[in-house]
Each structure stands twice: as C-alpha cells, then as structure tokens.
Design goal:
By secondary structure, this protein is mainly beta. It is built from no helices and 11 strands. The strands form 2 sheets. Strands 2, 4, 5, 6, 9, 10 and 11 form a 7-stranded mixed beta sheet that branches. It has a 4-stranded antiparallel beta sheet with strand order 1-3-8-7, with no helix packed on it.
Length: 121
C-alpha cells in the first residue's frame, strides 16, 4: 500500500515561495504509468489541480498556475516537490500530494493527509 506524506512550512509570507515535499513510501515514484500530483483546496472552494510529475519525470502544469509553479523529484529519496512562487493570501489552502494513473484526471488512488499552508504577513 503506497503512502504519501506532505511536509513543509505552514506559514509563508506574501511574495515569497511556498515549498512543499511529498515523501512516498510503499512504492516507487518511477513505477510505470503512475503520476504524482499536487492539488489544493482553498477555504470554501473546490479542489484545484496544480500540476503533476510522471514516472518518467515529465511535468504537467495547470495553465492558470504554470507561470508560478515548479514540480520536481528526487528519485534517490522517493520524493517529489512543489514550489509556488510569488504567493498571495489567495494561495492559502490545504495542499495535498496524490497519486493517479493519469497526469490530469482527478482519479487518484492514494492521498497524503494534507497540509495547511497560510499566506500571511
């Protein structure tokens, strides 16, 4: 059973970069045909897909966030990361790392527990 765990600071100041790490256990991030995504839920809003990295390292981004988002991986640690630049209070959300069989669909078979990130000075 694959498990995902988010980690990172819970508070980020406006204009700074939000950085999160997802540690995957029980399965490799290089296993064929799996894609690892970051999604978020702002308060009172629906889930928003931010981007994904595939088993071959290919990245995919939401058009609305592409200019501010970078997703990378460290295969030696079985981790993947999110960087969101120039954050504003609108980026306050619960951030989840998830696994699915497609880079852009919302059909996920494993979820991290989520981590609250607040953007505030």
């Amino acid at each position: 059973q694959v498990q995902l765990q988010e980690s990172g600071p819970g508070l980020v100041k406006p204009s700074q970069t939000l950085s999160l790490t997802c540690t995957v256990s029980g399965g490799s991030i290089t296993t064929a045909h799996y894609y690892f995504s970051w999604i978020r839920r702002p308060p009172g809003k629906e889930l928003e897909w931010m981007g994904a990295i595939g088993y071959m390292g290919t990245t995919y981004y939401s058009p609305s966030l592409k200019s501010r988002t970078s997703i990378a991986r460290d295969t030696s640690k079985n981790q993947f990361t999110l960087q969101l630049r120039s954050v504003t209070p609108e980026d306050t959300a619960v951030y989840y790392c998830v696994r699915g069989g497609d880079p852009v669909s919302n059909d996920y078979d494993s979820w991290g527990q989520g981590t609250q990130v607040t953007v505030s000075s």
